[in-house]
Design brief:
Elements (H helix, E strand, L loop, with lengths): L1 E3 L9 E5 L10 H4 L11 H4 L7 H14 L4 H10 L6 H9 L6 E10 H11 L7 E5 L1 E3 L5 E3 L16 H16 L5 E6 L2 H7 L7 E4 L4 H12 L7 E2 L5 H12 L2
Helix pairs in contact: 4-6, 5-10, 7-8, 8-9
Bound molecules: pyridoxal-5'-phosphate and magnesium ion.
The site of magnesium ion has 7 residues, from loops.
Length: 255
């Protein structure tokens, strides 16, 4: 599901994608909901139902269990709102929001879900920075259960069956380029996980991949450079803090 904010001026110079879990926030939001469970843990019979690559289905079962245990929307919202931002990320957002209006189009792509992400962004006061949010749809039904759905289906063998972020960003860039009548000067991708490596493969030599240092995305980029030189085309700038991203962006916007 994609949600979006106000209309956008057609000619932003740059497009920057952000992942959410372990990138914008310094945790995995799906893991944090366990805090709402009785005794702050999930029963073994539920945890045993997890199947690799089928996390979305597993989370649907977790959220159903939490609802049966009486966990409410406000319980979940307060857990999400308390997750800390990753180091320097709020400073990076402040940098982006104070740039000239024609500089950055900001898009979020995450395998979390709409409720967790919107709750966090609004509490942090940064929701309006994001022109679009692509993530798994999640809405409360009449019984107060957060019903989670897959984002889409796809053919990519690397990614979980509910979301391939490369499909998302390729479709978005193609559509926006047609709407604008021109390409972006550069595309940036800020991420951490293996599910951020796949979309980064679609970036070109003028684009920049910002993998969180020593996280899976960074490791996979390094391994690809070693095993298949030339396969990964984007410039790679690892980050420990959002301020590392600012340092590189400042140089690129000044060109
Ligand atoms: C449990 C779980 N939820 C969500 C995600 C990914 O969320 P995001 O795409 O926002 O990093 C992951 C990534 O590994 C995960 O393990
Ligand atoms: Mg992540």
């Amino acid at each position: 599901m994609a949600s979006h904010s106000a209309s956008i001026s057609p000619n932003k110079r740059f497009l920057i994608f952000f992942d959410f879990d372990e990138t914008i926030v310094d945790e995995t939001s799906d893991d944090m909901v366990v805090e709402a469970a009785p005794g702050q843990h999930l029963p073994g019979w539920l945890k045993d139902t997890y199947r690799p690559g089928r996390y979305n289905e597993y989370m649907q079962r977790v959220l159903a269990y939490l609802a049966e245990q009486g966990v409410t929307e406000s319980d979940l919202r307060s857990i999400m709102e308390k997750i800390p931002a990753s180091p320097g990320m709020l400073t990076l957002f402040q940098f982006l929001r104070t740039r000239p209006a024609h500089d950055f189009e900001v898009v979020l792509v995450s395998d979390a879900n709409t409720f967790f992400i919107e709750a966090w962004l609004r509490r942090a006061g940064v929701r309006q920075l994001f022109h679009r949010i692509f993530t798994n749809p999640a809405t409360f039904n009449k019984n107060g259960r957060l019903v989670l759905r897959p984002f889409h289906s796809h053919e990519c063998q690397r990614c979980p069956d509910n979301m391939c972020k490369q499909v998302v960003i390729r479709d978005y860039v193609a559509r926006r380029t047609q709407e604008r009548g021109r390409p972006y000067q550069r595309i940036f991708y800020v991420g951490d996980g293996a599910n951020d490596f796949c979309p980064a493969l679609s970036l070109g030599p003028r684009d920049v991949a910002f993998p969180r240092r020593d996280f899976p995305m960074h490791r996979l980029i390094t391994e690809t450079h070693e095993a298949m030189p030339g396969e990964f085309k984007a410039v790679t700038v690892p980050w420990v803090s959002g301020e590392d991203v600012i340092t590189r962006l400042r140089k690129l916007v000044a060109e």
